[in-house]
Amino acid sequence: MIGYEIFVRSFSDGNEDGIGDFKGIANSVEYFKKIGVDLIWLTPHFKSPSYHGYDILDFYSPNPSFGSMEDFKEMVDVLHKNGIKIVIDLPLNHVSDRHPWFKAAMKGEKPYVDYFLWAKEHFDLKEKRHWDEELLWHERNEKWYYGVFGGSSPDLNYDNPETFNEALKIIDFWLDAGVDGFRFDAAKHIFDYDVEKGSFRYAHDKNVDFWQKIMDRARSKNPEVFAVTEVWDDPEIVDRYANAIGCSFNFYFTEAIRESMTHGSVYKIYDCFSRTMGKKPYKVSNFTGNHDMTRLASIITSEDQRKVFYGLLLTAPGIPFIFYGDEVGMRGIYDPFFTEDVIEPLPWYASLSGDGQAFWKSFKYNRAFSGVSVEEQLSRENSLLREVINWTKFRKENPWLLDAWVEDVRHNTFVISYSVTDGNRGFRVLANIAGHYEQFDGINLKPYEVKII
Ligand code: ACG
Predict the structure, then answer these.
(1) Of 123, 215, 375, 404, which cross-links 317 as Cys (Cβ 3.0–4.6 Å)?
(2) Is the dihedral of CA 235, 297, 50, 127 positive or negative?
């Protein structure tokens, strides 16, 4: 199984309004097959006032810019008929401040007041998030409410069993609509405020228990349901959530390879493969990048080195994910105040114009005729995209990698070497991240070569 993250607005336009949509995704099945991906993750497709969609207005309606519920179901059908699974992004932690629940709560209406978290006297209302300078508490009409992702997205209070029941209803609804599973957004934030102490604190055990119950419900409806968590934290913390949910994004993989390749030494890759890819009770999900970070091609600027990245990604165990456009070398530098830079429309054509091309924003990082388009990448021999396709073919020929693990990780300064096995089958990988010849364990490696023995 190979995953592919799609930012819906930016992918493919099926109704000539310049905005990517469900129809555009259904129209792209041949592309998915060509590049070898068979598990699509859609970023939030619900009704929402923002371009990113993570602040939801209605969990039961698709964003009208992307199509109707009928269009959504048609897309799911087309994907399924072509052997492609689909998971939806589910931000259960918060809603939009324009959601009817929050509006009712602001008016003091029951039961909605208890759907949210309100300040008490001993709370520190000036406290900021631990990773940046954003405030946790927000004031409106002299009422203070909690919103870890800002005032426009108040957190839901899951100490209230009624709120939890709403979450279960949402899970049921979308599984009934035919989706194969979920990407659980902000999984470590469900309980991240200590109301006794009046300060921020992750309650990991309580969060894991929450997800376990959500998964029990999802599995009772579909025993094959697939879910992946977003827990952007140390590998040891990620483990705890992954055990309950069954799969988790391995942020350390993305970070370690980026760092190793820019610094010219594989040490971080060695540390990452040793720490995160041993035998586990869950599936690990390594990925090229996502919509919250600078794009791979803007960090690892050498295409040859990026080919090595794909070699590591597609020989490692679990479920690899490609962020749409990374396969053609899309660029974009993450700016927390302007996140649009990393979610530019996928350039289908060298000229950036033609059927299906999305246009909702102008192109800042991915210009016409810059070599970064599906058209140019498919027509050039030895392009990044052609290499990605070779690696996804390799992956398909080795489906056992899904349940494999890594053993015996070794390295010198430029070469990383590891065995991948499922207990029955296996191979050894040697990858040279440098632009010169290397020798490791008596084996010669060309510049940027990934060798499988
Ligand atoms: C998700 C989505 C994101 C979305 C939301 C809210 C959550 O992908 O698009 O925002 O629905 C934190 C959260 C994540 C969140 C990101 C954006 N992502 O935990 O759930 O912010 C540290 C912190 C992390 C933090 C990260 C951010 O620990 O918690 O992620 O910084 O940079 C090592 C360390 C690790 C450290 C990293 C980076 O890996 O181990 O701990 O992470 O280094 O330093 C959307 C929009 C937003 C909007 C919001 C409402 O994109 O613009 O505001 O919705």
Answers:
(1) 404
(2) positive
